[in-house]
């Protein structure tokens, strides 16, 4: 039977408010900068398009596209080198509270120190996390197929619902790497790759409970974000009195508020639930070669992790390309 640890996780979440507020503050600051930046781009574009000199729509569109791409690139860098480390520090504090039952003194300093001491650099943490993320995706994709988990014929009318559930599982998997990272902070094995390997094996033994609870709260999280967007839609409509060039900004503002609340408040709670559930569920489990072989049959990247663990490879020397920058608790 699936165990839910929402109450315990919510209590842990409340105790890590300094980290939650820090992430929220960073999100708000960047959102404000983003709105100002986009407003400036739109304003300059409107001047160029309707000003005395005139201008082509194609040129204006090209300039705005370059501006948006530049903004996205800067945001990617901030995620990689700022938010990534902040999120990891939050994970370290959550893991400490779950295992020790107490809040570390000056948790912001504690979390940052734990990340720096255990992974040395952002690139070291990034290298481990990218590989773990790839393994979890392959493994879960292999075992968590909704149609195969239901031992009955599925009516054609329900195929759309099954498809939604399958896509929701994909979204839920994005949060699982934080659970492995939390285990590594608890395990404190000098061989980081071995610690990551053991964490993945323990997930393999508890995946039904961990993935099930994660799926439940991820679906709820996106439903909450949809409700929030619906409630704020009238604000965007009210701002339609602005000049035509700025009407779009009213919707950007609403989207920004939803995104900030989603990323700064809701996602950290989801992350806390996932970590708490995994750390509690794995306590009675131990790693074994049978489970390792079972996972290896379902993820070719797991063999890579096993090899690194056996060789005690240095984490700083690995910079795998995963095609994206994973953030602990992403979807956040």
How large is the count of helical segments? 12
Overall morphology? globular
Structural class: mainly alpha
Distance between the termini: 28 Å
Number of strands: 0
Radius of gyration: 22 Å
Count of domain modules: 1
Transmembrane segments: 21-50, 56-74, 215-236, 248-266
Biased composition (Basic and acidic residues): 306-322
Region (Disordered): 306-332
Keywords: Membrane, Transmembrane, Transmembrane helix
Give an overview of the whole structure.
The radius of gyration is 22 Å and the shape is globular. Residues 318-325 have low confidence and may be disordered. The chain contains 12 helices and no strands. The chain has 332 residues and is mostly helical. It has helices at 6-15, 17-50, 57-100, 107-119, 122-143, 146-149, 159-173, 176-187, 192-238, 244-281, 289-296, 300-311. The protein has one domain (6-317). α5 packs antiparallel against α12. Helix content is 78%, strand content 0%.
């Amino acid at each position: 039977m699936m165990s839910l640890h929402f109450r315990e996780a919510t209590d842990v979440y409340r105790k890590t408010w300094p980290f939650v507020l820090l992430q929220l503050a960073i999100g708000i600051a960047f959102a404000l900068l983003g709105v100002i930046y986009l407003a400036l781009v739109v304003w300059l574009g409107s001047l160029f398009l309707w000003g005395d000199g005139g201008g082509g729509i194609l040129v204006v569109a090209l300039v705005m596209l370059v501006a948006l791409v530049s903004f996205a690139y800067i945001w990617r860098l901030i995620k990689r080198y700022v938010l990534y480390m902040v999120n990891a520090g939050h994970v370290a504090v959550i893991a400490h509270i779950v295992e020790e039952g107490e809040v570390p003194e000056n948790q912001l300093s504690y979390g940052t120190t734990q990340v720096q001491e255990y992974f040395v650099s952002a690139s070291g943490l990034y290298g481990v996390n990218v590989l773990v993320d790839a393994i979890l995706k392959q493994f879960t994709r292999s075992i968590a197929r909704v149609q195969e988990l239901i031992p009955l014929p599925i009516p054609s009318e329900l195929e759309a619902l099954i498809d939604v559930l399958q896509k929701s599982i994909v979204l839920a998997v994005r949060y699982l790497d934080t659970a492995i990272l939390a285990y590594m902070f608890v395990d404190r094995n000098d061989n980081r790759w071995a610690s990551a390997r053991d964490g993945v094996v323990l997930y393999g033994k508890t995946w039904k409970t961990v993935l099930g609870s994660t799926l439940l709260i991820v679906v709820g999280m996106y439903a909450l974000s949809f409700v929030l967007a619906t409630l704020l839609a009238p604000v965007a409509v009210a701002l339609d009195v602005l000049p035509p060039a700025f009407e779009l900004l009213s919707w950007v503002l609403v989207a920004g508020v939803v995104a900030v609340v989603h990323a700064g408040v809701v996602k950290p709670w989801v992350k806390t639930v996932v970590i708490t559930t995994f750390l509690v569920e794995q306590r009675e489990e131990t790693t074994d070669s049978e489970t390792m072989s079972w996972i290896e049959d379902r993820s070719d990247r797991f063999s890579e992790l096993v090899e690194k663990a056996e060789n005690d490879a240095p984490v700083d020397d690995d910079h795998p390309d995963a095609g994206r920058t994973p953030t602990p608790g992403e979807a956040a």
